[in-house]
Structure to design on (250 residues):
């Protein structure tokens, strides 16, 4: 069942979003060749604890970490690791913050040192695709309007859109209905209504969109070893347009 949130609930989620943004801004300062994603994961857990929050995905369906850390050809749900990041890597850090029962979910991709031109363009296109999708998150529009604009733009730039993983409703648990695909047809799917809170989180690949699963049964990666980039925001549908709860004011 799709739940619509009260202004109080959205405000609570917005507070969680502010802390999530602060966490990402600290991570951005840490990203450089030589750091490990395990160090980032440990930092996130301590930073959230210090601010009275918890990493909601830790323990969710048995997931063992505070963050997902997906590197290069890993599409999503990459496990933090002890091997250092190297110059040219692209790493996506994804996390869900629970602050006093309010949830916020955001993934952000980071360039490690100097990334090649195609990698930079993949990052730029994915971030723009996210915001194009958010523009469609209007009362009265349908979920297909979001996916269509993301797919049209990304494929027009020569990249592909992951099919197997989608955005979703959020609150009171991490994954709520409806699914928010990043591909599709306009004017199709569930109609967006005031009070819905969703994530939009396009995963865009430089090669094929097809994925395969690692032996850990969590981490998805591209079948052709092409790189994948993801940006994600949590947003509320309001009568005045989408309210981004995890905006970084970039």
């Amino acid at each position: 069942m799709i739940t619509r949130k009260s202004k109080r609930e959205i405000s609570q989620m917005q507070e969680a979003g502010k802390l999530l943004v602060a966490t990402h801004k600290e991570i951005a300062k840490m990203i450089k060749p030589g750091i490990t994603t395990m160090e980032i994961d440990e930092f996130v857990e301590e930073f959230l604890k210090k601010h009275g929050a918890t990493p909601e995905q830790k323990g969710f369906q048995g997931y063992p970490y505070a963050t997902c850390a997906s590197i290069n050809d890993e599409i999503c749900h990459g496990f933090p690791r002890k091997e250092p990041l190297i110059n040219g890597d692209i790493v996506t850090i994804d996390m869900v913050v629970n602050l006093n029962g309010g949830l916020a979910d955001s993934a952000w991709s980071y360039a490690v040192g100097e990334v090649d031109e195609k990698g930079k363009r993949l990052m730029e296109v994915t971030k723009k695709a996210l915001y194009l999708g958010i523009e469609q998150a209007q009362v009265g529009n349908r979920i297909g309007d979001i996916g269509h604009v993301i797919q049209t733009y990304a494929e027009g730039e020569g990249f592909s859109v992951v099919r197997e993983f989608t955005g979703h409703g959020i609150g009171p648990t991490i994954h709520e209905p409806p699914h928010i695909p990043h591909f599709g047809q306009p004017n199709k799917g569930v109609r967006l209504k005031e009070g819905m809170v969703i994530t939009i989180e396009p995963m865009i690949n430089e090669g094929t969109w097809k994925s395969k699963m690692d032996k850990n049964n969590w981490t998805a990666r591209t079948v052709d070893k092409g790189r994948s980039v993801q940006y994600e925001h949590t947003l509320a549908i309001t009568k005045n347009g989408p309210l981004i709860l995890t905006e970084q004011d970039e």
Q: What stands out?
A: The chain has one domain: 7-244.
